[in-house]
Amino acid sequence: MSFPKKPGGKALDVLQNLPRITLANLRPEPGARKTEKRRGRGQHGGNRSGRGHKGERQRGNRPRLGFEGGQTPFYLSIPKYGYNEGHSRRPQYQPLSLKRLQYLIDLGRVDPTQPIDLTQLVNARGVTIQPLKRDYGVQLVDEGADIFAAKINIEVQRASEGVVAAIERNGGVITTGFYDPISLGILIKPVPFFLRGQPIPKRMLPGEDMVPYYTDAENRGYLADPEKIQQARLALAKKYGYILPDISKDELYHMLSMRKDVRQIFFGLAPGWVVSMPEKKILKTTDEKLLKYYSS
Amino acid sequence: MSHKMAACLSLRSTVLRSALRAAFSPARPATAVGLRCVCNAAPEANKRAVGLTESTEEYKFVERLIPPSRVPAPPRHAGPTPSGWTPPADSPPPLPYMIRRSRMHNIPVYSDLTHGSRRTTLVRKVEGDIWALEKDVKQYLKELTGKELPTQVNEVTMTLKVKGHFDAELKEWLAGKGF
């Protein structure tokens, strides 16, 4: 800050005092330039030119890569197995460690006084989600569970047990929610969606295979019974050996208990509304049929 | 005759093209949005006719969703945070060199791996006497590892390269100094 910038520094001073640089004065660092190997020249490079004695090696007719002289090659003797079969139909979840989440909160990129959503995480550039690459959202990962110390209301798509314990130990709330690919695309990039001028769609319910996950209180699913979730919180506290703090006595209780409706994509904005960004207004329809559809 | 044929063909092709365009154009939503684009002269009359209400109260929820375009300044912390990030000291340390923080408020020490086995550590954003920094770094790493590590000073870009991966140690050392 207070240091005067001297471009080139001491090297430039030295250069200015030396005689003029010409091609005759320059030499590369010893070991920087290695002379290339020239085949077929001289006593040791000539004769067979590094090709060996007769056979396929000297004549340049070796068989294909992987050929083992007739023995069943390695790549054929191992049987096939469908490890990657259906990989493009498998949902993927971008991992987010608690260490990184704590880092984002510490640097002020994510606000812990507001409910943390996937939109907030993407706006903070904490994760990058690609819905077109079969990403169905973000998953919280155990790493950093021991150093995590923030009271937050977070909604992710998947979370492991250790993560749930770490968040609840600090007095926070975690929920797992499902977003279908279209809703996910809208969730991570809300501004281009609003500029399209289309009404906010309803969030679709999970498919058959995901319903058991999101109706389970152990996973804090958004379709689970709230009473069962409370019981699960107590059970987890007992299992991990910490006292479950009482959130209802917290000053941020209202924020911690904010949850999205099953069909809602954004906090505070209902499906069916059109957002007009240039006019900074929200347009709501009054047609009965549309209202009935959007509130179903 | 050939001219007429050519004109006829071109006309038919343009008609076909416009028909295709109409067939494949995305169907606009049947709500008032399409109508809004059509007439800007009397918007309120149209909106009331179609059945729309406006509101500006919930717009604050939309403002929360807009991504910030600048990196926010980190909140004040007394010492190291739970995640391991240390804020810079309020006043720069009294040394002949200064190492600025990156735009994401981190210490600019990076490790690199080239050619599969060449490990280097790079210290960027150095200001002031870079040779003094090099001397201090060499001494610190000598105490740490017991070896004299080769370093390279680039006075034009004001960077320091050290052989080996020492980014964690150097970050801790620099944070301890108050950079």
Automatic annotation (TrEMBL), chain A:
Cellular component per GO, a single term: mitochondrial large ribosomal subunit
Tell me the ranges covered by the Large ribosomal subunit protein uL15/eL18 domain, including all copies.
95-175
Q: Where do the segments described as Disordered lie?
A: 1-71
Q: What's an example GO BP annotation here?
A: translation
Which residue spans traverse the membrane? none
Q: Which GO molecular function annotation, any one, does this entry have?
A: structural constituent of ribosome
Superkingdom classification of source: Eukaryota
What is the designated name of this protein? Large ribosomal subunit protein uL15m
